[in-house]
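Milestone 3.1: sequence recovery, worked example.
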């Protein structure tokens, strides 16, 4: 997925969730970096990052700050 496609995905997530694109972009890049750190196969990283960001934003009403539940196991 190239930069143009990433920007399109961020835009779509922002529209669907009512979240500013800057916030979605930040979460997307954080998710992508986290997933890429330990990934052996990287073919689906962008899809997985999108899925995790969408889920985090969908569930944001139950948390004060959007947190990716899979982000840290030491909570």
């Amino acid at each position: 997925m190239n930069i143009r496609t990433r920007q399109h995905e961020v835009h779509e997530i922002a529209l669907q969730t009512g979240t500013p694109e800057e916030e979605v972009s930040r979460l997307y890049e954080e998710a992508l970096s986290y997933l890429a750190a330990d990934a052996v196969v990287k073919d689906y990283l962008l899809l997985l990052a999108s899925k995790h960001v969408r889920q985090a934003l969908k569930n944001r009403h139950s948390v004060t700050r959007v947190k990716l539940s899979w982000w840290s196991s030491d909570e």
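The CA atoms of residues 7 and 25 lie 8 Å apart. Residues 21-38 form the longest helix (18 residues).
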